[in-house]
Amino acid sequence: MTDRPSPGIWGWVAHHKALSVVGVVLVILVVGNLGDTSSSDPSRGTSGPPGATSEGDDEGGDPDRKRRRDRQPVAEEPPEPTYLVSSVVDGDTIDLANGETVRLVGIDTPEVGECGYDKARNRLVALVEGERVTLVQSDEDRDRYGRLLRYVDAGPVDAGLRLLQDGLAIARYDSRDGYGFHPREPEYIREDRGAPNITCHEPRHFTPQQPPQQPPPQQPPSGCASGYSPCVPVYPPDVDCADVEGPISVTGSDPHGLDADDDGVACE
Description:
Layout: H1 7-40, H2 55-58, H3 63-71, E1 83-90, E2 93-96, E3 101-104, E4 107-108, H4 117-128, E5 132-142, E6 148-154, E7 157-158, H5 159-165, E8 170-171, H6 185-194, E9 228-229, E10 248-250, E11 265-266
Parallel strand pairs: 3-6
Antiparallel strand pairs: 1-2, 1-5, 2-3, 4-8, 5-6, 6-7, 9-10, 10-11
Helix pairs in contact: 5-6
């Protein structure tokens, strides 16, 4: 007869085997849960603030979309419009190809017939005629004649300022004479004061011509009436052509009445 363990011992072994299996299963489950927690926790593995997203997240994980966005051009400010100058009226006024007339702000140049007119106009012609210019608005839009009031810039050159610097214009129509302040007024006044005087001076060797002097009227000889040549006796008494030798040139009032036909020659 073989010895067998008592039922109590076998029950204890079976009970502890079951507990061991349960323990192993629990360990596997705990380790698996730890891995899932670390990968699903949004607070782990990022240094950004709450709510921040990476470029990949922002683009939905599409690298092609990000590249397309990077290649898009940056919007630029539209360029300022320019206007073609068709002709120059004078040193401070121009006509545009679109039919508008522009009066340069803050300067004044000589008018037609005044000293310096040609030089001022020719300088402005060289600066802007046939060129495209930028018009910069001042404190007013138009003058009483309907002309646009603008600064005229030919590229980087302020045409009005250049005329001041060349001594071909004066700073005018500003706050000093009741027209109101304009933005470039301080610079215009400063350049005007430093520019040469545009007043025309006569050459030093010039001597104005005097009108020819009329010779004083010759006094008739004693006993002769004035206004007759040759001599006719003083009136009264009255004389006739029979009393004198003609012909006689009459240049006076002819008190003797010798020039009957009033042609300046008597007693023909």
